[in-house]
Amino acid sequence: VSIPDGDYEELVGVASAIFEATGGDDALDRLEWDPQARLDDPEWRHTLGAVFEAQGMTLASTPALNRVVASAYGIADRRMAVAASAATPGIRLLCLAETGKAGASGAVLDDAGSGLVAFAAIEPDAWPGGPLDESVASWFAAGDSSLIVAGERIGGARRLALTLARVAVAHEILGASGVLLRLAVDYAKDRKQFDRPIGSYQALQHLLAQAEVERRALRDACRATLWSLGSPDPAGRDNQGPVLLKALAGRAGRRVAQATQQAFGAIGFTWEHHHHRYHRRILTLDALFGSVDELRPQLAVVGGDGRLWRAPVL
Amino acid sequence: VTADDRGPAPGLVQVAGVGLIDEDSRPTEDLNAYRSQVRAWLASRQPLPRSRGQRSFGERLARLRELQAILWAEGWARRGWPEEVGGVGGDARHRALLYDELALAGYPFGGVYEHVEILAPALLRHWSTEQMGRFLPRLLCGDDVWCQGFSEPDSGSDLSSMRTRATRDGEGYRLNGRKIWTSWAAYADRCVVLARTGPADERHRSLSAFFIDLDVPGVEVRALRQANGLDELAEVTFDDVLIPRDRLIGEEGTGWSVALDILSCERSAFAWLRQTKLYLAAERIAAAAGPSALDAVGDAVLDLFAVRTASARAVAQLGQGLFLGPEAAPVKLLLSTAEQAVYDAAQRVFGPDMVLGAMEDSADWQEEYLFSRIVTIYGGSRQMQLSTVARFLLGIASR
Fold first, then answer.
1. Which of B18, B21, B307, B332 to mutate to test the interface with A (most CBs of A within 10 A)?
2. What is the Cα–Cα distance from A209 to B161, expressed in whole angstroms?
């Protein structure tokens, strides 16, 4: 199967249209994305990338990420928690968005110490505060739990879930970064100070150009990593692409958000301007499945053969 | 060299949106099989000539040319070039694969291939079949070293203000002027020279590209010692040098498009070659890194990942005959960021020992660290690249 870039861009366009028209709860279904991972199918991979890129562009709040993660564990209809913290009293779970089912049922957490743990009932719990973007994930108070799959049996699923989630989230950051840059460039052409568009000043040109370089690097890394998921053991220890991609996305997204905020000036710091919405989404996505700051030190470690991992991009 | 990107860009191939995810341009059985063959050969053929450990640049270059001659003689360096120039078919991806494997086997960046990758793809595009068949094999097989004469004492970033002039003389031309900061000119046999053949006020429209022998009367080359101690750069003076008619590259007045294609390669596919070397340096840095330096090394590894994936895309497009034009600017920016990040990490990891010469290989690190400071200047300064991105990729005009 050959999917040239034009087709990928078209797929992003179709997914964006779905998000804008319907809120996008079923974008993956409507693009006939099979929850059974079919990593060797380029179209399946491209749909994964395109849906999340479109989600970042439209800032839609959908169950897509939950779906991808839960599917990797083979429990496509369950709600996934990605973090837990002890509270007084009980346990709090950070659950991925699962629109329409908020608080309705339980959640499943992959607890590194034990394994897949099911919490029977969860209740929304915003205290003492939620994520910067609660449409990505939010906190729930959890009750009794039971172990459903022991840790030693889910190593493969855990790696697949992390791999797909990292690739998906990186694409979402790419989409959000692209919109921020487009908005900032339009603004720089339009907004005048000293009787000239602010975009005619080299200081601002270079600020936005550097951000565009970050975005393009993320785009190329997204494309290469999406492609590499088709290799024989994409979630294996030999493929560090998704880790690198996730770290790169966090770094690039933060840099693009900062540069574009500077371009918007004070207006971009106001609530009615959209910048903060994209910024919150990017920061929240960076914080999930390993932020750039968490991942960076492990990227610096050479393997037993003394080698750093090189992306198989030829 | 540096270049003025502010002029219009004649002959640019617009490649926006082409081949980004073209499965056909991705690894094929052919490339995978080729990789295995290269690996098997490298494993059986070692040791090959090495440049590392030679203090003088001339001796280093001599080792690299020995390596190049072996790779040509045994056929590996012929892969990726058309039969007209002594190649055996394949494209830029085959060459990129060879450089990758050479580095992994401990032969960083195959040396002279830097100039091959900068010059040859563009010359293939602009030379006649007769010209390419006559000249290019000499470069590819290691018999010749070529250089690229663009910058002048008064024309760095503002390349199209250059004053070196070629005037018609019978069937040929006479060349007068001065080029400077020309990499490898003191060791080169031939030089691609950009010169003015029309009115100066026509700027980039009155430039032509010539292929000049450096051992002819009227050419004087003076090596320049660099900040890092090597003498890769030189100044080249042309005093009434006779250029035969068949040394014109393309047509008279098309020099700018030749230059843009050369610069496109210097800013993109060249970055692939460079990152193969940088990964080796990063591995030695990472192996020695203590906890406090892991962040700096991790950032450098991210920068390498970015330049590797971005330059691979450029290689794939070059393999399809596409030159990136302005889209090469981000790749060059990524390379310069990565190269400086790697050596900043070296400084962080090795600390004063590197600067004070307390390590066994301090001299290498000192030299490479200082070299990494020029990467934001050669091939078009960081500021020029950013202006190119702003103007051509973001559409923000200066006035």
1. B21
2. 25
Name the residue among B268, B224, B243 with its Cα closest to residue B379: B268
Q: Tokens 């006649």 sit at which residue?
A: B128
DSSP letters, A62-99, are -SHHHHHHHHHTT-TTSPEEEEEEE-SSSEEEEEE--T
Contact A218, A174 (CB under 8 A): yes
What's the pLDDT at B136? 97
**Three-state secondary structure string covering chain B:** CCCCCCCCCCCCCCCCCCCCCCHHHCCCHHHHHHHHHHHHHHHHHCCCCCCCCCCCHHHHHHHHHHHHHHHHHCCHHHCCECHHHCCCECCHHHHHHHHHHHHHCCCHHHCCHHHHHHHHHHHHHHCCHHHHHHHHHHHHCCCCCEEEECCECCECCCHHHCCCEEEEECCEEEEEEEECCCCCHHHCCEEEEEEECCCHHHHHHHEEEEEEECCCCCEEEEEECCCCCCCCEEEEEEEEEEECHHHEECCCCCHHHHHHHHHHHHHCHHHHHHHHHHHHHHHHHHHHCCHHHHHHHHHHHHHHHHHHHHHHHHHHHHHCCCCCHHHHHHHHHHHHHHHHHHHHHHHHHHCHHHHHCCCCCHHHHHHHHHHHCCCCCCCCCHHHHHHHHHHHHCCCCCC
List pLDDT tens digits, range B151-177: 999 999 999 999 999 999 999 999 999
pTM: predicted TM-score of the whole model, two decimal places:
0.94
User: Is the separation of the CB atoms in B389 and B330 below 8 Å?
Assistant: yes
Closest C-alpha to A52, from A161, A163, A175: A175
Number of alpha carbons in the 13 Å side-chain half-sphere of residue A246 = 27
Question: Are B286 and A300 an interchain contact pair (Cβ–Cβ within 8 Å)?
Answer: yes
The Cβ-side half-sphere exposure at B94, using a 13 Å CA radius, reads: 19
Q: Which pLDDT tens digit goes with each residue over A267-288?
A: 999 999 999 999 999 999 999 9
**Among chain A residues, CA nearest to B278:** A308
- Contact check, Cβ <8 Å, B27/A5: no
* Distance in angstroms (rounded) separating the CA atoms of residues B249 and B120: 12
State the pLDDT confidence band at B109, using cuts at 50, 70 and 90: low
pLDDT at position B19 is: 32
Q: Answer yes or no: are the C-beta atoms of A137 and A97 closer than 8 Å.
A: yes
Span between the terminal Cα atoms of chain A, in Å: 18
CA-closest candidate to residue A237, choices A159, A134, A167: A159
Task: Copy the structure tokens of residue A263.
Answer: 């371009």
> What's the rounded Cα separation, in Å, for the pair B141 and B144?
8
Q: Tell me whether residue B266 is one of the annotated catalytic residues.
A: yes
> Which pair of structure tokens corresponds to residue B38?
């290269």
B24 φ/ψ angles, rounded to the nearest 5 degrees: -65, -25
Q: What is the pLDDT of residues B297-351, one digit of tens each?
A: 999 999 999 999 999 999 999 999 999 999 999 999 999 999 999 999 999 999 9
- Given the structure tokens 């998704």, which residue do they identify? A242
Instruction: Sort out which chain A residues have CB atoms less than 8 A from B96's CB and list them.
Output: 314
User: What is this model's ipTM?
Assistant: 0.95
Please identify which of the residues B114, B152, B232, B266 carries the catalytic annotation: B266
- Say if the Cβ atoms of B394 and A298 lie within 8 Å: no
